[in-house]
Amino acid sequence: MVTIYRAYGLRVVIFVDDHEPAHVHVFGDGQAKINLIGSEGAPELVWAEGMKRGEVRRAMQLVTEQQTAFLTRWREIHG
């Protein structure tokens, strides 16, 4: 597990032994899995557990703002 970003009390990680499609896991009070490229090209929430609605919105906003950087890190880690 590699922490690639921290902001707003959230920690964004990529698991080194994870699978496609490119995605991140976001940990706060709970956790969420967000695909970096959804059906419309923007990040897409896969699931969230234990996070309040506002925290999920913050996580989605953060991943949207950092999408390019996070995709670059995914490719560095997974080839």
How would you sum up this structure, described in words?
With 79 residues, the protein is α+β, with helices and mostly antiparallel strands. The chain has one domain. It is built from two helices and five strands, in the order βββββαα. The protein has a five-stranded antiparallel sheet, with helices on one face. It starts with a strand and ends with a helix.
What is the count of DSSP helices, taking H or I runs of 4+ residues?
2
Structural class from helices and strands? Answer: alpha+beta
For the terminal residues, how far apart are their CA atoms?
A: 16 Å
Question: So what's the overall shape?
Answer: globular
Q: Approximately what portion of the residues adopt beta-strand conformation?
A: 25-35%
How many domains is the backbone divided into? Answer: 1
Name the helix and strand elements from N-terminus to C-terminus, one letter apiece. EEEEEHH
Averaged pLDDT, please?
97
User: What characterizes the major β-sheet?
Assistant: 5 strands, antiparallel
Share in helix: 25-40%
How do the strands of the widest beta sheet line up side by side?
Answer: 1-2-3-4-5
Low-confidence sequence ranges: none
Rg calculated over all Cα atoms: 11 Å
Count every beta strand, where a strand is a DSSP E run of 2 or more residues. 5
